[in-house]
Amino acid sequence: MTVNGEEVTREIEGRLLLIHFLRDHLGLTGTHWGCDTSNCGTCVVWLDGEPVKSCTVLAAMAGGHEVRTVEDLEQDGKLDPVQQGFMECHGLQCGFCTPGMMMTARALLDRNPDPSAQEIREAISGQICRCTGYATIVRSVQWAAAHEAGSRTDETDSPETVATGTAS
Ligand code: FES
Ligand code: FES
Questions:
Q1: What pTM does this model have?
Q2: Does the keyword Metal-binding apply (predicted)?
C-alpha cells in the first residue's frame, strides 16, 4: 500500500487491522486506538481519499490502496490550517480524539470549503470527544475554513478575526 505518499510492503497476518499496522508496523502512532467497538473514531485515516475508521479495516484490505494519516497533514514544516485551527481555537483538551477529528475535518473542507456548524457536527458525528470539547472543535474547523478562504481570495484579509473564544 501507499502510506502518506510512500510505498510500503510488509508480510502480515491476515487478521491484522489497519490501525495496528500503522501504529505497530510503521510506527505511525499519531493515529490513536480508542475502543474495541468501532464507536470512538479516533482511529480515522483516509483510504483512497475517504475517511475510514482504521479499526474496521483489515490491513490486507488496504493493499494496493492509498492511506493518509495525520502525520501527513503538516507539509514542509507548515501546519495544515485544520491543525492551526485546533491550536488557535483550543480544539483539543487531552488530544486523544484530535487526530481522527482533524482527518475528518480535512476531508470535509476539501469537499465543502464553507461548512455550516451543523455540517461540521454531522461530519464528526461518528467520533467521540471524551473531553466534551465539541464547541471548540467546531470553532476550530470554522477557523480553518475562514483561513483557507482568506488565503484563496485576499492575502490581506484577516481570518484570525474568526471567533477564537473558549467553549461554552
Ligand atoms: S478505535 Fe474506536 S472507532 Fe476505531
Ligand atoms: S480532546 Fe480529549 S478526547 Fe477529545
A1: 0.89
A2: yes
Using CA atoms, how far apart are residues 162 and 146, in angstroms rounded to an integer?
Answer: 7
Å from CA of 97 to ligand 2 middle: 5
AA letter at 161: T
Same domain flag for 15 and 66: yes
Distance 34 CA to ligand 1 centre (A): 5
Each residue's pLDDT expressed in tens, for the chain with a length of 168 residues: 999 999 999 999 999 999 999 999 999 999 999 997 899 999 999 999 999 999 999 999 999 999 999 999 999 999 999 999 999 999 999 999 999 999 999 999 999 999 999 999 999 999 999 997 799 999 999 999 999 987 776 554 444 444 433 333
Provide the 10 A C-beta neighbour count for residue 94: 10
CATH of the domain at 143: 1.10.150.120
| Grid cell in block for residue 162 | 474568526
Residue nearest to atom 4 of ligand 2 (CA): 129
